[in-house]
Amino acid sequence: MKIFKQKYVIVTIALFLIVTTKNSYSQEFGFGCLGFVGGFVGFESSAFKPNDFNNYVSDFNETRKDTLSQQLDSFGDAKGFRFGINFFRHNYNGLLITLKSSFSSLNQKNNAAFLSNNLTFTHSYDLQLQNFAIGVDFGTSISSLLDWKVIDAALILNRTKLTRTRNSPNQSSQIDNYSAEKIAIGYTLGSGFILKIVSDYISLEGSIGFTFFEVGRMKNSENNSYLTYRESSDVPMEKFIKAGGLSGIIQLNLSFPL
Questions:
Q1: Which of 5, 105, 182, 235 is spaced 20 to 30 Å from 115 by Cα?
Q2: Tens digit of pLDDT for each residue in 229-239?
Q3: Listed residue (190, 126, 134, 135) closest to 160, CA to CA
Q4: Predicted confidence band at 16 (pLDDT cuts at 50, 70, 90)?
């Protein structure tokens, strides 16, 4: 605890010195003239279109319609956290350029419950989207406090996972873990704003745009079987996610001058 407090004090003092000495050092020594580097952490929400999987969900509910106490909801909106690095951010005569990389882990979990022989059975489906992205944005300053990211684009590598858990009374849970057979390659395109809280050092960033990707077959990691179109089917679901959709990001940036 004592070491943690010391580190906290050191970081606080360092930030204070950076902010208070920016103007005097920038002119004399070119402080920050090469741009800024830093990290960020934030929240992300992403829509997607798992059309065939939602047909699976509809069939699940239809099959148990007379015994359902809680129906299984459809999928299409994952939320979670993201973090990353701004490798480089610089102002070229009014044109702001940022090169960055990030990792996000988003999920959506839905549950269902139904009765059989006066006993309650539950099924849960936990869908996870893991995205690694490398991107660039181009923008301009609107004021001393606000920057506009005119174009915010990134290449993404997506790994999709699905965990199905079936719980029966007085029995052990049956867990099936599925993963996308291949890593999906896609991209995002959007726009956003950066609100400067402490000059160029601490800022709040928000973005909105569209994510474009698709996911094929989902494979069980234990028995190498595939997720099927229906529970009673033997035909593998060929396209688990047909397309991406609208996405939104809000994050806190911490930057240091080069």
A1: 235
A2: 999 899 999 99
A3: 126
A4: very low
